[in-house]
Amino acid sequence: MIVKQFYLQCLAHASYMVADESTKIAVVVDPQRDIGQYLQEARAHNWTVGYVFLTHFHADFLAGHLELHQQTGAQICMGSKAQTDFPITSFNDGEILEFGKVRIKVLETPGHTPESISLAVYDLAKSSERPHCVLTGDTLFIGDVGRPDLMASVGTTAEELGSQLFDSLRKKLMPLPDETLVYPAHGAGSMCGKNLSSDTVSTLGKQRWENYALQPMTKEEFIGLVTADQPEAPAYFGYDAQMNRETHLTLGEVVKKSLRPLTVNEALEHQRKGAQFLDVRKAVDYAGGHMKGSLNIGLMGKFATWAGTLLDPKCPMVLIAEPGMEKEAIERLGRIGFDHVVGYLDGGMQAFSNRPDLLQKGQRISAQGLAELLTTAHPPVVVDVRAEKEWEAGHIDQSLNIPLPHLAEHVQKIPENTPVVVHCASGYRSSAALGILEKAGRTQVMDLIGGYDAWITTWGHPKHKLQAACTTSCAS
Questions:
Q1: Which among 240, 257, 241, 247 is positioned nearest to 69, based on CA atoms?
Q2: What is the pLDDT of residues 69-83, one digit of tens each?
Q3: C-alpha span between 473 and 382 (Å, rounded)
Q4: Cα Rg of the chain (Å, integer)
Q5: 97 with 179, same domain?
Q6: Domain count within the chain
């Protein structure tokens, strides 16, 4: 038996292949939508991908089950509580899929979602009694458990799912042997939990000892613990969870229809019809000159998460990218189901060489420059777009905290006719904030180069005292 993990850093997402060398049959679990790596692995070992399992309807990415089914004919497998509009093979709790020396036992582990399952994987060449590993999906992470609060919009409360999660962990997973390897679907950086480790594998025994959610406690204590202090879920989570239930275009079909060069006039026509303009270049290039009304989310950062947070998934989109980067942007948007790209600006920013009237530059300021402005008679308003917890941990004195996901709806809380300096931790989020404020009609906006990290590096804590609380916060 061979178990291989594939880790997608930008989405903190782990997927798996489980293969039997005697029968050459392989199973893919929780695949990402761009499936090339699984097909390449199968070709390299002469495996046939016979099955693809989804442990649940993922909210943070669009899975590649339809793509694998189309490319390989693999059966799409889920737990018995999953309802889809495409054919699936349903597995009840305790049911087994066996081929060669591989046995996969399905464990119903509701809690993160009602249909969640975990997969106990046995290497029959070694033991038919003790599993080699358990693929836990979003039920059990390394250092954490799946958050139970994402289903409120469809009528299932966090308390109800928290109760189910408590039972799933203690009745289905914790009885497994200590040496059982734990392979989750996510790691540090995922919004599917609040305390995920950067480790991508552990053992059940180690988790039993270290994971806060597996310690002895009552069900009521557990529910209170796992529902408290969860990070705000990105806006696209509900959209993706629903798309994973439905038939939709494959990623290859999306790229084919979206990878279309547009002239400036064609792009402007799409803008008149309500299209979003997404500039995926680096923040420094965006500041050097960008199309009026465009939003900057750089490919080099947490692109998918912020695109899913700030963009409308159903609204047409025009891309502005460095030439040659358009396909990557379309594919990475496709990973979260943002499939409505109508094209990209042919030639990138060079397309505007004869249309300077469509461009504007973003103003940037150093930490030194900001410090000097703050000592003047009319200092700028400093808007910190980091999350509330980041701001509470330390911030520039008298700064206004408006987390980036809520900036557009709270622009009116920023004083008008006053210079504004916007910042985040490093300058990635604040570049998006710059575009949001410009689109809202604010003309005196500057982006702090290097963000709060640069401020601390320049001044340190002693010179500019950090506040644990501030008189004004717009965090929702």
A1: 247
A2: 999 999 999 999 999
A3: 12
A4: 24
A5: yes
A6: 3
